[in-house]
Design a protein that fits this description.
Layout (H helix, E strand, L loop, with lengths): L2 H8 L2 H20 L13 H15 L5 H23 L7 H17 L8 H10 L9 E9 L5 H17 L19 E5 L1 H8 L3 H5 L7 E6 L4 E10 L6 H29 L13 H6 L2
Antiparallel strand pairs: 1-2, 1-4, 3-4
Helix pairs in contact: 5-10, 6-10
Length: 294
């Protein structure tokens, strides 16, 4: 055969496709142990075609044309064939993404098995009573603060704090203007009716806890924040209280539904687990030691 013809054949994409197909089938036979290509039936009935049409309409806000529906159907068949062949080859095994996706779908299935009816007021009230700390209204603080720049020497800061505390508490009616007293800062001079979370959002984590026991009406400190040091005068304190259902209905309903889903998933899993004989073997040594020798 002419060498030019041979070279032309070797470059032919059709030949490449046939060789690739032969390779895939060879792997298929080795992995699956089957000597023949599986002959399985795929049926796309009117109901399936309508489901494909509905999916198209939700995406494109119009029904598909006849030609588009034929294309959707052929794509469904293609996907089904490749899906079955991938399963036969075991390509879904040991794939973390697929395992997690299938687990998620099973959990969705278990949730769907429960009749999703909205909770009654009695159910929500009982859930609120059983979990009142989760829905408790937080404490609120109102306070003033004077900022002390930590970039000063430690001795200077301590002396300034002590001097200001004596002055402030000796004159209870003194109007403290943070622009004139203390060091310059962009932080607010006071907060009114702020929750601990809101206080920490302004001054940094832990600041609300540090000042929560400051006596009302007196200056105290200095207290450290993310920005420096502060003298604080608590002007008002409002203790948190147990919420009523009317105050937190939407949150309680959301948490009730989430709890119900978790319970459903747990019950569904435990029912499935009873069908399996589970054997767990943990390393005798500590995990860190076992991993170190691998």
């Amino acid at each position: 055969m002419n060498s030019n013809i041979i070279l032309k054949l070797l470059r032919d994409p059709l030949l490449h496709f046939l060789m690739l197909g032969a390779g895939i089938f060879s792997v298929y036979f080795v992995v699956s142990g089957r000597a023949t290509v599986p002959s399985e039936r795929i049926v796309v009935d009117e109901n399936q075609a309508l489901r494909l049409a509905e999916q198209f309409q939700r995406t494109w806000m119009r029904p598909p044309t006849r030609q588009e529906l034929e294309g959707l159907t052929e794509d469904f068949v293609r996907e089904e064939i490749l899906y079955r062949e991938a399963q036969a080859l075991g390509l879904d095994q040991n794939d973390l993404v697929i395992r997690r996706r299938l687990r998620q779908k099973m959990e969705f299935l278990s949730t769907d098995l429960i009749e999703q009816q909205p909770p009654t007021d009695a159910e929500l009230q009982a859930f609120l009573a059983a979990n009142k700390d989760r829905f408790r209204l937080p404490d609120r603080f109102s306070f003033q603060q004077v900022y002390l720049n930590p970039n000063r020497s430690a001795g200077d800061v301590k002396r300034a704090a002590a001097r200001l505390l004596v002055r402030f508490n000796a004159e209870p009616d003194l109007e403290v203007d943070p622009k004139l007293i203390g060091d310059a800062t962009m932080l607010p001079a006071k907060l009114d009716a702020a929750t601990p979370t809101e206080v920490d959002n302004v001054f940094g984590r832990g600041f609300a806890e540090a000042i929560e026991n400051v006596p009302t009406g007196r200056w105290a400190g200095p207290f450290a924040s993310s920005y420096g040091l502060h003298l604080v005068r608590m002007t008002a304190r409002e203790a948190g209280s147990v919420s009523t259902l009317e105050e937190v209905r939407s949150i309680v309903e959301r948490e009730w539904l989430a709890e119900r889903r978790r319970t459903a998933n747990d019950n569904f899993y435990q029912a499935l687990r009873q069908r399996y004989e589970v054997e767990i073997r943990l390393p005798a040594d500590s995990v860190s030691k076992t991993l170190a020798v691998r």
